[in-house]
Write a structure and sequence with these properties.
Blueprint: E1 2-4, E2 24-27, E3 32-40, E4 45-50, E5 57-62, E6 65-70, E7 77-78, E8 82-93, E9 96-103
Antiparallel strand pairs: 1-2, 2-9, 3-8, 4-7, 4-9, 5-6, 5-8
Length: 104
């Protein structure tokens, strides 16, 4: 797993801004990242934005239960309501370059 800086870093928004949110997360098979969500509502979902040219696939879990496999054209995955929940994104095939995780 590694963070990849974009070819051109964006303009800093404030004095000590390191622009880390412009980086892409690279996941290979066997690597994963986890995110904790608080107060996940009934009907909420999580989706991923892959970088252009990303050919990998990931599996998304909520508290250890698989929600499904996603590739660059994958749909949003429905979440179970929870006061606190952990979302795991695990690389399964190829290199996945992720730009964003979107919780709605």
């Amino acid at each position: 797993m590694k963070l990849i800086e974009p070819a051109k870093m964006p303009e800093k928004r404030f004095g000590f801004d390191c622009c880390w949110d412009a980086c892409q997360l690279s996941l290979s098979p066997g690597e994963y990242s986890e995110y904790t969500l608080y107060a996940a509502q009934e009907g909420s979902s999580v989706s991923l934005v892959f970088a252009p040219g990303s050919a990998g696939q990931v599996e998304v879990f909520q508290d250890g239960t698989s929600l499904g496999l996603l590739g660059p054209e994958g749909p949003a995955l429905q979440l179970q309501a929870a006061r606190q929940t952990v979302i795991r994104i695990a690389g399964t095939t190829g290199e996945s370059l992720l730009e964003k995780l979107i919780y709605q």
